[in-house]
Amino acid sequence: MKTTNTMLNQIDHLVYATPDLNMGVDEIEHLLGVRPAPGGRHPGWGTQNALLSLGVQIYLEVLGPDPDQHDFNGKRLFEVDKLSQSRLLTWVAKRNNLEN
Q1: Comparing C-alpha atoms, which of 12, 14, 47 is closest to residue 31?
Q2: Which pLDDT band, with edges at 50, 70 and 90, does 72 fall under?
Q3: Is the pLDDT at 6 greater than 70, yes or no?
Q4: Architecture of domain 10-95
Q5: Which of 18, 24, 37, 46 could form a disulfide with 72 if both were Cys (CB 3.0 to 4.6 A apart)?
């Protein structure tokens, strides 16, 4: 049975959370043999990331605290600064028809 008005079409990306982004990038390179590329910073969230393509329209996000956000004093996304070790944390779905 095909649903015509579904919001969940497929997985967009996987999130590998780490207490230190450089360490997390090194871990992924060691595990997969490919180094994630620098991504970006998330102002107001206290995090930064690196990205690795896993195929057509799916990627791995390595997410860690951004030490350059000195004025950040809130709760970081996924509380990555409180992790004791890196781990595959979650997945994020693509969504369509956000207005419906």
Answers
A1: 14
A2: confident
A3: no
A4: Roll (3.10)
A5: 46
50, burial (CB in 10 Å: exposed 0-12, middle 13-18, buried 19+): buried
Spell 14-27 as b/e; 16+ CB within 10 A means b: bbbbbbbbeebbbb
Domain ranges of the chain: 10-95
Position with higher pLDDT, 94 vs 1: 94
β-pairing, 87-95 vs 8-17, is antiparallel
d(CA 5, CA 44): 33
Extract the tokens encoding 82: 């409180």
CA distance 52 to 32: 10
